[in-house]
Design a protein that fits this description.
single chain, about 250 residues, alpha/beta, eight-stranded parallel beta barrel, 11 helices
Length: about 250
C-alpha cells in the first residue's frame, strides 16, 4: 500500500503558535500535487512532541479528507511507553490514519513486546517501525528487526551499510528517511522514502529515488537544512518556495 517517495509533513503554525490545520492540509495537497505518494503527520518533522492529542487528531482528519483516497496518510504514534503509544495509535486510527509510524522508546530492550501492544491497538492498520537512533537510542538492532510484529520500517539513521543489510535481508519493506541516500536506496530495492526534504523539493526527491544522480546532488541544500537546522531550516526553504510561515514550537 505504501511505496515511492512520501513527505514527512511539517506542521504549519500561526504567529501565535496555534496549529493551522487548514494550512497544513493545504500544504499536504500541494506536495502530493508535486509527486508525493504518501504523507506522514505528527512525525519528528511535524514537531510531534509539541502537539497535543486533539491537535494530532485534527491534523489527521483534515489531511485525510483533503487528499485522494489512494494517497496513504501515516500518523506518527511513537512514545516513551507502550501505554502512550497504544493510546496515540488508537486515536490516530479513529481519526482516519491509514498506517502508523512508531518510533522506538528510548533505551528499550523489549521491542517485540512494545510493538505487539501497538499492533493490537492498530488492528488491521499497518504498523511501521521507526529506527532513528539519533532521536531515540538505541533504535532497532538489525538482528531484531526481522522478528518484530511490524509491516515495514523507516530507517533515518543515514547509514548506507545498515540500509544495504536491511534491503538485502528482504524481511519487510524498508523506507529510507535520509535524503542523502535516495539514489542508492531506490535502485537497491527500498520500498520507498519518507522525507523531510520533500516539504521543499518533492520532485527532486522522486527523481533521486529513481536513481537520478544529478537530482541527488541538487538536493544537497534541502538535505543540509533538514539535517542541521530542523525544523527551522526546512521551514525557511518552504517559505522561500511556497510562501508558508516559518513559525515553529520546537527550538
Amino acid at each position: 500500500m505504501i511505496s515511492g517517495v512520501g513527505v514527512a509533513l511539517a506542521t504549519i503554525f500561526t504567529e501565535g503558535l496555534d496549529v493551522d490545520v487548514a494550512a497544513t492540509a493545504a500544504h499536504a495537497e500541494r506536495i502530493v500535487a508535486h509527486g508525493a505518494r504518501h504523507v506522514l503527520l505528527a512525525g519528528s518533522t511535524g514537531e510531534a512532541a509539541a502537539l497535543d492529542e486533539d491537535e494530532r487528531s485534527a491534523l489527521i482528519g483534515a489531511v485525510r479528507a483533503a487528499l485522494p483516497t489512494d494517497i496513504p496518510v501515516i500518523a506518527g504514534t511513537g512514545a516513551p511507553s507502550a501505554r502512550q503509544a497504544v493510546r496515540l495509535t488508537t486515536q490516530a486510527v479513529a481519526a482516519g490514519a491509514d498506517a502508523v509510524l512508531v518510533l522506538t522508546p528510548p533505551g528499550s530492550h523489549d521491542l517485540r513486546s512494545h510493538y505487539q501492544e501497538v499492533a493490537r491497538a492498530a488492528a488491521s492498520v499497518p504498523v511501521l517501525g521507526y529506527h532513528f537512533p539519533t532521536m531515540s537510542e538505541p533504535g532497532i538492532p538489525l538482528e531484531v528487526l526481522g522478528n518484530l510484529p511490524i509491516d515495514g520500517c523507516k530507517d533515518s539513521s543515514g547509514d548506507p551499510n545498515r540500509l544495504l543489510a536491511e534491503v538485502t535481508a528482504g524481511t519487510m519493506p524498508i523506507y529510507v528517511g535520509s535524503s542523502a541516500l535516495l539514489a542508492l536506496a531506490g535502485p537497491m530495492g527500498a520500498a520507498g522514502a519518507i522525507l523531510q526534504a520533500a516539504n521543499v523539493e518533492p520532485e527532486l526527491c522522486a527523481l533521486a529515488f529513481a536513481g537520478d544522480i544529478e537530482a541527488q546532488r541538487a538536493l544537497a541544500p534541502a538535505h543540509a537544512a533538514t539535517r542541521d537546522r530542523a525544523p527551522h531550516g526546512t521551514k525557511a526553504l518552504m517559505a522561500a518556495r511556497w510562501g508558508t510561515p516559518t513559525h515553529a514550537r520546537i527550538g
